């Protein structure tokens, strides 16, 4: 059995670990609140944009909309954007997503992968390390640290680069993998097609209210063409915000579990400590008593 | 009075009642007053200005969209370059 001193040391170290995990949980909770706040603030913009688009496309034939971002090409070169976190200690958050992306590479995009025409753009250090270590073609590491300063301005530059890559034919298809924030405890790994934009994003006319007679400047087609890249950029931004919120949610849950486990460990250790202490005392008493009785007998 | 909202993806920059709004439409800048006909227009680079109680505030933007309907003006821009 371990000595009393050893057990005391273990107890002390578990207590300090528990304090750290508890603090990390609090920090994650605060950051989660801020991340959710960001999603809420982005919503009015996204909804207004979609509202206008629906309003306009209700009166438009899909074939009238000309945009380089809608044009479908045979898929030769593929770019997959993998959104993970910069830091660990958030449970299976990064691993689940990396696995999902890897699965897509080896099923959906196996042909392009074998031909060496599949690139990965990792946002978040963890995904970068994961794919780099496994020898995938990871491009543009300068965007990996997008999360250190997450605002639309910053995201915009990357978004515009994606658009121009697609327009110039550098890639024929761009997909994004991210964790969707369902609630604090649940993250769902998702795969979304970013480019070419699916034409049906403009065609959801069922919800379009009785459209008013708008004056349109310069023209309905021109406005829709102008809006499409904006919507793609907001879709990209939304994926990043979702992933950010999901990360803090995952970390909060992981740290909560760790704190709980530490508590359980402490209970057990304290029990062992007291038992050992008692055993030592009992042993001492027995020694004294038997010593005394030996003297008496003599 | 008009209700004006200036929205970016990061936040609502302004929301409130104003007397008039100037926006840099791609086909030429125009002014929105009370009871303006419904209009949707894309914006070019320029100043979005609004006036309330004879005080003027301006923002420099580089493109966006404006929707005017029923005395509600909604300006959607990706970013505000500077507040003048």
| Helix share, percent of chain B | under 10%
Shape of chain B: globular
Low-confidence stretches of chain A are none
**CATH homology superfamily name of chain B:** F0F1 ATP synthase delta/epsilon subunit, N-terminal
Q: Which stretches of chain B of 5+ consecutive residues score pLDDT under 50? A: none
Specify the biggest β-sheet of chain A: 4 strands, mixed
The ordered H/E elements of chain B are EEEEEEEE
Query: Which chains make the largest contact?
Result: A-B, 30 and 24 residues
CATH topological fold name of chain B: ATP Synthase, domain 1
What is the CATH level 1 assignment of chain B? Mainly Beta
* Terminus-to-terminus distance of chain A: 35 Å
- CATH-assigned fold name of chain A: Pyruvate Kinase, Chain: A, domain 1
Overall 3D form of chain A: elongated
Q: How much strand of chain B?
A: over 45%
Q: What is the CA–CA distance across the termini of chain B?
A: 23 Å
Question: What string gives the helices and strands of chain A in order?
Answer: HEHHEHHEEEH
